[in-house]
Amino acid sequence: MLVLLKNITIIDPSSSHHNQVRDILLNGEKIEKIGEGLTTDGETFDGTGLKVSQGWFDMRAFFADPGEEHKEDISSGSLSALKGGFTDVALLPNTKPVIQGRDGVSYVISKGAFQPVHLHPLGAVSKDCKGEALAEMNDMGSEGAVGFTDGFESISHTGILLKTLQYLQKNGGLLMDRPADAYLSSKGLVHEGYFSTRAGFPGIPSLAEEIAVKRNLDLLRYAGGRLHFSCISTKESVGLIREAKAEGLQVSCDVAVHQLAFDDSVIGRFDTSFKVNPPFRSESDIEALRKGLADGTIDVVVSDHNPQDIESKRLEFDYAEYGVISLETLFGALNSFSQGLNIDQLVSKITDAPRDLLNLEKPVIEEGGKASLTIFDTEKEWVVDEKDFASRSSNSPFLGLTLKGKAVAVANKGQFHKI
Predict the structure, then answer these.
(1) Among 71, 157, 265, 386, which residue's Cβ finds the most Cβ atoms within 10 Å?
(2) CATH 1.10.287.70 given to domain 2-51+367-418
(3) 187 falls in which pLDDT band (50, 70, 90)?
């Protein structure tokens, strides 16, 4: 593959060409040359008005394979990621069976080898993600798991969380947990507040998340290690994590992109496309999340891609499954709703930061560097339409909305894909 990107703006603070308009010649999996006035016998791609960064990395997605391939499988999920501009995706372990040993990790890696994106398996912390007994983390790590989490399940067992923090210290491994107190959140459907009361839905209080954040930070202080909070959603959680970072604890966190776009007023629509966990919170929570992104408290933005088929969503609100698909809309939503982030900050949340946390190599846009790149247009406006999805599912809260910003091409694994 010989592809010449002409007149494109490079967004990569680690590159000597950062914020400069250059030509980039790609040869297979390598960047052969960067300069001005370059020519090629291969394909030429006009990058005028466009930007290029390291390949985008989604740190939290679910492909439902194996076990529920009718919702999503490795192939359709990978195509969905590619269409969203991603070169790399970390996959949650909540499949059927759960990814909790060598075989599960090997399954993802072997099937991912034939996909246009790199797939990085996350191993379960506990057996069957039930929080009762530790899974085989050492075996999974040696097989290629990049981090450990019970995915959709919060680790409620303090002994399990403590032992995991201690165990992973020997190799600098990352423990990822979605904080939620099971007893406070198990009966709820939506954020507890004015709109839940008006709709007559049982609520999930912010306290359910915040108690878990406080508890886990206390365990981190006691045990040491590296702890990552997934999908934080409240103002208090942002403040607690900000204080913990200032204290010097090795703590990080992410936010799901849809949490930046919607508040709990959507409850009044009774639309199961807006049934997510954690739920959409208040306007003040959203403002705190945006500030946390801008000041670096929130390290990463994730898709929390969770495909659900029609039979799982086209039900009464009480019975519908949680989750949205977000890979194909992540950048447009982030660019449209983050507010206050400059382009360097925005891109870092889906490039450098995930790779740093997972101890993975970062591609740098330099001659001789790896050709793992995302080309994107920050000004392109587009309407989210179900018929355009590559995913097998269509449970998106962004349907019919106009987003600003879109990936237009991806270079990865020696291939060049126009989107």
Answers:
(1) 71
(2) no
(3) confident
